[in-house]
Design a protein that fits this description.
The chain is mainly α and 98 residues long. Helix content is 68%, strand content 0%.
Length: 98
Amino acid sequence: MHGKKGSGLCPVSFGVAFGLTCALAVLLWSLWVKMYGMPAMMSADHMGLATTYMGDLLRALVVLVKGFVFGFVFALLYNGMMRFSHKRCCKKSEGGAA
């Protein structure tokens, strides 16, 4: 699928990018809470954040894996839908310009 114009998303690349983005967001949020405390509008009991840096890293690792799986499946579904809709909606006309 690589190299063709409009070939869709690479599931591995998209999964890694999505997982890393989610893990970075979790790490930044954990550091924010450690430095400034939980925002008043949020309950600390509801968020259940880890109190140690090792716990934060473990949580980020779990989110990395979950984000990768979600991104991988999303890219596969996206590519499948693109192929399906391209076959149904984008047929070339018989005698004219496409």
